[in-house]
Hints:
It is a single chain. By secondary structure, the chain is α+β, with helices and mostly antiparallel strands. It is about 40% helix and about 25% strand. An 8-stranded mixed beta sheet has the order 6-5-9-3-2-12-15-14, with no helix packed on it. The chain is globular. The protein binds zinc ion (ZN). Zinc ion binds next to helix 4 and helix 5.
Amino acid sequence: MSHFYFDTDNNQYKTFELPGAKPHYNPDRPGQVEHIFLDLSLDIPKQSLQGTCHITLTPICNGIDRLNLNAVNLDIASIKVDDVEQKFDYDGSEVSVKLNTQTQVNKRINMAIAYSVEKPQRGIYFIQPNEHYPHKPTQVWTQGEDEDSRFWFPCFDYPGQLSTSEIRVRIPKSLMAISNGELIGTESNGDDKIYHWSQQQVHPTYLMTLAVGDFAEIRDEWNGKPVTYYVEKGREKEARLSMGKTPRMMEFLSQKYGYGYAYPKYAQVCVDDFIFGGMENTSTTLLTDRCLLDAKAALDNRNTERLVVHELAHQWFGDLLVIKHWSHAWVKEGMATYSEVMWAEQEYGTDEAAYYRLQDARGYLSEDSDRYRRPMVTHIYREAIELYDSHIYEKGACVYHMLRAELGEELFWQAIQTFVQTHAHQSVETIDLLRAIETATGRNLNFLFDQYVYRGGHPDFKVAYSWDGDSNLAKVTVTQTQAKEGKTSSSNYLFDLKIPIAFGYTQSDEPPQLKTFTVRVHEKEQSFYFPLEEKPQFVSFDHGNHFLKTVALEYAIPELKAQLASAPDPLARIYAAEALGKKGGLEAIKALSTALTSEPFWGIRAEVAKQLAKIKLDQTFDALTPGLKDGDARVRRAVVEALATIKTNASYKALKPIVKSGDDSYYVEAAACRGVGEIAAVSTDKPKEEKVLKLLKTVLAEKAGWNEVVRSGAIGGLAALKTSEPALNVILEYTQLGVPQSLRLGAIRALGKISVGQTPTNLERILERLKELAKETFFLTQVAVVTALGQMETPKALGILQSLANQSTDGRVRRRAEEKIAKVQKNIGTDKTLRQLREELDQLKQENQKLQSRLESLEALSKKEGRSEGVKE
Length: 873
Ligand SMILES: [Zn+2]
């Protein structure tokens, strides 16, 4: 769903800072950590590890007699400094070492901490088969970011400290261990084997990693360096399909960043039950095994490719240049996300890249409108993990793109290369990026950072256009609808930007000619007049669409049609489609349906389908159906989703064959499954609910497969049948342990959607189930439970959410649970009578649509003659 248009009058943004948020700073540094050496032994059945953590530290000043290290719930047996036992205090989260001898500047200290930990809460995860999932692999893996390394070894756990590292680990002979850097030795010891890895380049504690499992190793290489993929045995082919572009990506990024890949190897390990998509541990990225594609998924799944290039980009932005404090995480996350755009450009062309960038912008915009607005750089939070949101990823990427647009291709890369070369193997803050830009290009881009980085928000533009034929004058009026009364930029939210406006002249068989002017937009409302020789056919505001913004075009239909058909910038074509969708009417349908079949770029065809769905006329159906035969699965998916919003028996009949006989794409099949449910739920001329139920149950029985995409679609379809008890019963069944995980998570989430139409007795059953599920500690289960509860409309959901907000060990779950509490309170406000009224209104609208559609047809007929809206005038 696109959240692109939202109510711009509503500037009541929720605040990012939850109660208890406070400023966070890096601690004072007693010295420079030079080296960390973990010498460990794992006991996997017991989910425990024990060993020694050696830390070499060079003191910065004399006379320090205490060292405080982060260490959560570890059993610390002893601490020695230079082989002499020291006293220490330990409160379960910090260990304070009382040094027998005070520090002397530059006189190195060798600390050895003997410790163990059993069933660690975080940081290191033990995966094993169990009674419900007997085929689960045996694996151990770590996740340090942001502040979880302290759960598996004592350390100065903040990114301002960079050191070399070494991990020596004893594990069962049947498994292998992968870690940062180079493998410098292995030895067998009875039933065990010891792996010894060493990382010679400095990095922070949160990037230290260990992954243990019975992996297949697939070898590739780049520039003589090993590039390896580790996956569960039997999935070798999927590994190649999913990660095989890595060496080419390494070449690409090395060139772009002006710095060759810095580490002796690059490994990617796909692990089970991973709690992120991927993690860029230095030279050893961990990925979720859900990213492994089969041939059918590879058809239209680009998420894996984007994940692979994202984590690889971090090997420079994040690992080689380490952010000094979490508040600057956008510097790395923004560039890693922008590198996905760059890779899309390299691999699939500029249209793809532009569209990719628009999706990023939308990701940020929906967070900004639905969750909160915040500056990209802030050190006020409860937990650092809260910062990992769409503001630093997607908006970060958009900011890097604006730098590129502002500086131009050549200077932008010079600036980035200067930044990387100057700060390789160091830590950085936002200011270092600004300074690198200035050093390399002479440009001071403070104005852009002030508007987009250090404060929240973006401009919301409304653009109106008119033509004065007597004086050959184009008038463009630009309104910043986000602006408020106020004399300073911090109170009026005005943006001050130089924006190009292109006037387009179409010509047959040739690309249109453009006349481009750049104007300074800095007031709430400004009108610009352009004397032109001829009337243009279209007006492309912010030509190239490089600025992060929303835009509503208030043009007449002929200009919108010409822009959709001819603007060279794909995003200008999309904005035109959006404006046509908003306008509605038969003319708009005609223009959009022409684009659906003739537009060369799939991204726009998909967007056009979405816009058609917004026009509530009967003619929309006929305009959409040719798109079901589109050669690109991503367009078919958008068309199926669009048809699902037309709640008629005809659209049910259009989607049913896809559910029954399938499609080349899993995602299209899944969308059709959801679609038939949605149609059956609210249609006036309904297909029988029992028929849909039967159809979806057949899918559940027969279509198990890759990541359970299709069966999750069927669950989604059932969830739409809100008043159906049989549908609820099926969903509940699939929340049982033993059901494949991704399907089970889908079923748990579906409990929220279906809950709003159920009887009080069934609502109780749902709540009981969610209460049970909330006790499971696995991160993804908790997120699914929170998502389900957030959709409910009963105060009884609040208690479960509150207990998750209080008790979950994951900061992301705690924050989400708290946000959902507010959401449910709002949901309760919309009481039953109101919903009933809304449903009746929907029915009326549908009946009205029939009349409206007939009226439009009649009007079109009567207008046919003498109409002039010609392209040439
Ligand atoms: Zn990242």
